[in-house]
Amino acid sequence: MPEKLSFIFNSAQGMMLAANYLLDHMEDEEFKRNPVKYSFILTAAATLESMLNDGIVSWAHRKFPREDYKRHASAFLSINLRGKLDVIGYLISSGTHITDNTSQTYQDLSGLIKLRNEVAHSKDFFTEVDVEYTTDEDGNEGFIFPDEVAKKFANSPLIPSNEKYMETYKSLERLYNVLNHEVSHEKVDLFQAV
Question: CB neighbours of 86 closer than 8 A, spacing ≥ 6?
Answer without folding.
Answer: 99, 101
